[in-house]
Amino acid sequence: MTALQSETRDDAHHVVVVGGGFGGLQAIKSLKGSGTRITLIDRRNHHLFQPLLYQAATTILAPSEIAWPLRHVLRSRPDVTTLMAKVMDVDTETRQVWLGDGTFVTYDTLILATGARHSYFGNDHWEEHAPGLKTLEDATKIRRRILAAFEAAEKCDDEVERRALLTFAVIGAGPTGVELAGIIAELAKRVLPRDFRRIDTREARVMLIEAGPRVLAGFPEELSSYAAKTLERLGVELRLGAKVTECHSDAVDIGLDSVPCHTIIWAAGVQASRAGKWIRADADKAGRVLVAPDLSVPERPEIFVIGDTAAVDRADGRPVPGVAPAAKQMGAHVAKVIKARLAGGTLPAPFAYKDMGNMATLGRRAAIADFGGYKMKGVLAWWIWGVAHIYFLIGTRSRAVVAWSWMWSYVTGQNSARIITQPEDGKPQ
Amino acid sequence: MTALQSETRDDAHHVVVVGGGFGGLQAIKSLKGSGTRITLIDRRNHHLFQPLLYQAATTILAPSEIAWPLRHVLRSRPDVTTLMAKVMDVDTETRQVWLGDGTFVTYDTLILATGARHSYFGNDHWEEHAPGLKTLEDATKIRRRILAAFEAAEKCDDEVERRALLTFAVIGAGPTGVELAGIIAELAKRVLPRDFRRIDTREARVMLIEAGPRVLAGFPEELSSYAAKTLERLGVELRLGAKVTECHSDAVDIGLDSVPCHTIIWAAGVQASRAGKWIRADADKAGRVLVAPDLSVPERPEIFVIGDTAAVDRADGRPVPGVAPAAKQMGAHVAKVIKARLAGGTLPAPFAYKDMGNMATLGRRAAIADFGGYKMKGVLAWWIWGVAHIYFLIGTRSRAVVAWSWMWSYVTGQNSARIITQPEDGKPQ
């Protein structure tokens, strides 16, 4: 129960940032030169490039290609100390962030940027059978389940069981669900066939289940219907207007039907992290903290909440989406507010989200993009998507390795990250 | 309890290979065109390039850079079926290999190539505190422990505890122990210092503990003493003639001393796999099956044992070492014997190991090499080691990626695979 050593070393204004995702890192970058002392706390040692996580889950990229040690990213910032620790609670009176090992860190300003997890809408027991995709561990688990299903099918001599092993269900047809389904279909239809002897992997059934009437509801209808057609051409079976009623280890129930199926992936909903509870703040149904126009917490101006943990609306009343550019913009905004407060200058105008457009990939050769008025689809959109994502990766090395992995996959049709590790029972099968 | 479907499909001579390491894969390669039908059984889905495993454990390479799905390696061999399954037992009377799911595979010829695990010389309870390095999971675990120790030290405000967190013990100064200690020292002294704020990682203590009188006892004394000097220059503390008497979670006992230490790695001894027990064969103390001069099991000519699971002597009476070239030579040899038997031709001469020389790296810029009469050391030996290992990797993609990772590490001094995943308690810290 002691304060960490450096607590008393320095009397600069102390900004504590919890969460090293897009929002937290951007806040730290934008605070450069502000004269503050910064402590970044994350329970993981790495920043994760979530927009490409679905590729790690589907054997195209390796985990280390889309994650970087936070302290390495911040190595040239002597004003930033990085702590790998789990936050247990926040004492807003004494301004202390309490860590899992019983120590605490005292802040002058606190930025909560702890993101979101998947939500099962009250059916938390589905998680075991239908994992979601938010962390590298999730990606490794999903990759393991997909690959292990093909392995088990190759060994299986029961026709019905084999068909269940070769059935894959993705629940939720937002960008993540669409991207996962597209790659799994390609894996089955194009990447794996030559590797197996007893099964024809092309017979695999990949279902994309969506309660709403269309895929990618966030996109204009025209792109949505192009996406649906492209997915069907890749071999994805679309189940629109279909409501999942239960997830089992060997089946998914859709309405009153039960479809035998060994691999289910959840891409249907998210819920904000627990940060709102630490500070006992008002939150919406999804747990997102209701923030003031400057992204601070009402009556706690020294606490900011940003990214997927904050409930922020656009000028037209629609919510700001839970995407990387939004989190980054919020991070930059709170840095501006903090700097203005310390300098005693004019405070910036309220936060306003600037929509940079929306993209989603369909397999490895097509994508759709919606830049406000300007829409794109097909191969060219895929290339633009690829170049944009390589641009946003961190560091020359990752850019080169990811570009190389994609070129390799594109040209040879082979995915390289197809290793099964860490079986779930802890023992090799 | 049913025979797998394809059992009855084909009446070609059926060779079952258990284990897709260097020996098993080489046997399959050399059996190409023999007219046999081959089934490869491995409990993992990948071939692992073990000579570079220490680099995956020490953040230089990512797991997928040194492992390849077995069925992908064998995709152009329609005569080979790959099964990911755990072997439970072998019925040598009915010639059945029994798998973990209750099915069996019947063989005409059986090749057991199941390798070795580490041995704690009767102190199996040490494994929890001092993991060995044989699998990708081992490598991930060791990498996690090393990185987590630095993370914990950065958070720790107790001087004594921090020193224990920054003490690393490698037990056993054979090639693996020497290679691990060298890279850990470099990690602490050169790669990590700029990333931490509260600790000076250069103060880390890396001990290499060896019961014998010198490091790398398999090499000539001259190279051995060069290696010792190079390790000391890298900052490794050599403890020769030192016997480990106990491993704890927070200390290692050497003789009557107890050294506070949170990270212990075991590189001191190996033991053959259980394959000898499946076939109830005579084995030596380390569990290695005593084979006939053609590598078959006495009185069971249809069963061969190769690689680290076989006890084979050289012409001069010294044992054949447990290295990749030896396993490969044995694999090629049994393929020759099987082909000669099937063709009814002259059987090949007894197996004779051809020593291709011996290499070990010392950190990232030096190595030693012993090619019989010709000895090398230093930077040039490192480059020869590097080129040789890239040559033996599988496929253009891996060669390019590993070469790139090494160049990157060499030029920038940074290691790229520094992500902590899957904490041991299953939950992120």
Automatic annotation (TrEMBL), chains A, B:
The protein, known as: NADH:ubiquinone reductase (non-electrogenic)
One of the record's GO molecular function terms: NADH dehydrogenase (quinone) (non-electrogenic) activity
Species annotation: Harenicola maris
PANTHER family, A to Z: EXTERNAL NADH-UBIQUINONE OXIDOREDUCTASE 1, MITOCHONDRIAL-RELATED, NADH DEHYDROGENASE
Catalytic reaction(s) noted: a quinone + NADH + H(+) = a quinol + NAD(+)
Record InterPro entries: FAD/NAD-bd_sf, FAD/NAD-binding_dom, NDH-2
Similarity comment text for this entry: Belongs to the NADH dehydrogenase family.
UniProt entry keywords in alphabetical sequence: FAD, Flavoprotein, NAD, Oxidoreductase
EC number: 1.6.5.9
Superkingdom of the organism of origin: Bacteria
Record flagged with keyword NAD: yes
SUPFAM superfamilies, A to Z: FAD/NAD(P)-binding domain (SSF51905)
Domain (FAD/NAD(P)-binding): residue spans on this chain: 14-331
